[in-house]
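Why does residue order matter? Because the sequence determines the fold. Keep that principle in mind as you read this record.
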Amino acid sequence: MLIPRVVVALAVLGLGACEPTAPITQPSIEASSDVRTLISGVATVHDGDTIKFDGMRVRIWGVDAPEGLQACGENMPGDAATEALRQLAEGRRVDCVMVDYDGKNRRPNAICTASNIDLGQRMVEQGWAWDYPEYSKGKYGEAQRTAEAAGIGVHRLGCELPWVWRQNDKAGGGQ
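Structure:
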């Protein structure tokens, strides 16, 4: 049974729920008693911190990856971050537990796992995303310090933090 997109959207927003009856190739939604929502299925990767289920974007909670147009010196690490997440998630069943909903960007923010691997944690460990302490409250801080000390991923490139880069870009001062 296919789940109509409007039902998926309502379930994600907490306005309704449906049983997870869809095959693994379709996203399924399951509302639990603690009002957290599970989104699962085979995902595709949108960028270094966003995945999609049948077109529905889900932001990986607590991390921030370099933007597609963000330059770090002469390097553009957005594509490398996207590829790193693709290696972790694409073609696999991904389970996401919604933490909150970003109304501005119209997408859920969720802790997502593939093969029991926390995708946010692994992206930070590999140096392709930063802990986003405003949201994570430091959940991935230790992984980031380890990646920084090892000089891997974005840490070897001297990148500006993406949330700072976005603010500067909006002000007309982006790299």
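The first strand starts at residue 28 and ends at 31.
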